[in-house]
Amino acid sequence: MKRLLLLCLVFAPAISYGQSTELFEKLKAVYPEENGVYIQRDKSVTLSVNNDSLVSSASVYESVLFLKDQAIQSSGWRVYGSYFQQIENLEAKSLLLENGKYKTLKMKPSSKKQEDDQSIFFDDSYFYPMSFPAGKAGDQAIWSYDEKYKDARFLPAFYFSSYLPQVKSKLTIKAAKGIDIAWSVYNDVEKKIQFNQYTKGGFTYYEWQAENLKAPQHEVESPKFYYYVPQVVYYVKSFQSKKGKVNVLSNVDDLYQDYLHTISNLAEPPSPELESVVHSLIKPGDQEKDIVKKVFYWVQDNVRYIAFEDGMRGLIPHKPNYILEKRYGDCKDMASIMVGMLRVAGIKAYYTWIGTRDLPYRYSTLPTPLVDNHMIATYIDSQKNYYFLDATGNYTRMDFPSSMIQGKEAMIVYGDSGYEIHEVPEMAWNQNKKQDSVWVSIENKSLNGKGKVYFTGYQKINASYSLDKAVEERKKDNVVNWVGKGNNKFYLESFTVHSLNEKDAPLSLDYNFKINDYLNEVGSELYINLNLDKLYYNYYMPAERKVPREFDFKGGYEETYILSVPKDYDVEYLPSNAEYNGNTLGFAMTYSRKGENIILNSRVYTNTLMLNPDQFSEWNEAIKKLSKAYKESIILKKTKQ
Hints:
alpha+beta; Immunoglobulin-like; Jelly Rolls; nine-stranded mixed sheet; eight-stranded mixed sheet; 17% helix
């Protein structure tokens, strides 16, 4: 998916005067806290037919008014293009406010540049970097450009909000006769987007317009803007050519046919090297599922993931033999080599298109390439169990989809025989657990402890990345991030990591620690809070928050604390048990005494991937009860000597 379009501008010495300051004074009063505001954002898309081919282009006009002096960065603005979306006719100017009047400073774009992103091997996107003069309150920036689309299947969505409030935004589609389009409106909760349709001069015009839009709130741990920014997603269903009706994206069948074309030439005789690798993995007695697992893990461990986008190469995988030779590739290539290796073993696996959780769209409602940004392979066993093989991650188990595709619709292509839309499951919280057992003893006002913690599911995957990829001097700090307790006086004395590279076994850590000055002593009583790791303590969703809170996975956190009671103390107070089972979050805490030990069993779980604003009150109620339970302390009283 390509980035939102932004523009950057540079000086060119052509000056004229005009316009009044009335608009500035009015908008300054309406938006007193804002740094600036979009006065207008217009995009006009034209769809026509030329020589039986669908032609698509767009014109863009945008203007920004600065409401504070130098409040918006004058450099760093960009307009983005790509192989499929070429930028042409870029023009820009600044209106500089001087002595109550505007003078116009015409500008010209700088040279086209590539993004310098170390995580991407090659990307066909580009941008024009430019700079405005240092903006004063009242200055304006105005620009326009054209977009030429190489393929009408890849028309971008239009977003009615950005990082600044907007006075007016408008999308117009001008479609020639015989062109049938479809559209969907997303995230328009307040019904701000108004629609109008009319015919003029042999074209049908579709217009969406919105006024007085606030800037969206970008909150911590919120999902991508696609989930909450008002937008129109549009696409061409079909058009009339001289030969008759031509389907473009009339339904998912058309999308399937397009995708089938991208993999139609991938089959090739396996090289001797590819055959050798596959046969070396297979042992006598291996069942089909065993072989799939070995191939999946081999690709994880031996093919380096590198993102790659270059025109149609961004859609078409390389062939398996090539990928084996290079030992690197993007998600499409990893899917390709898995399909090819399993074919050598006589096992069927299927190319699968899917959108990550960055995207809110679904094939069932939007049959366009906007739905997906990822490719994996799918294996289906004889019992109709689906295995979604995403080798871009190093530690994912075969029976676990990667976290970023949970709950998403997958298009599984069976070749010429058809396809299936299948929803990837969301993994339950009890499959992604951190289980920590801790033994602690009291020394003066400090706690000495030892623990053993197990990580499973996505908890293990995240912890494995943290521990395996860290340089040696950072490993201890990373372990503290996963097992740290109490307060900033926690000191990790030693640790041992087990099963780091065993994908099907839990990751485990043995560790020893000390927390200085942790206990409170009042007279002859010691107050000890055994909740050493207060997950989600006071983690309330603010009432003013308007966007969802996203979780990487549903997770369970189970902790057992065993406190050895000092021989010259007795138990004065043991907190009551507490429990709450909510739809989004729940917990249970039980206290008991066995001999000279006090035991706290604690369980906290999250049961959602997306916490929406209408669930905030329920979440906050759970947090209130959890935080209260966390505050409870054990009281030990010194016995008489």
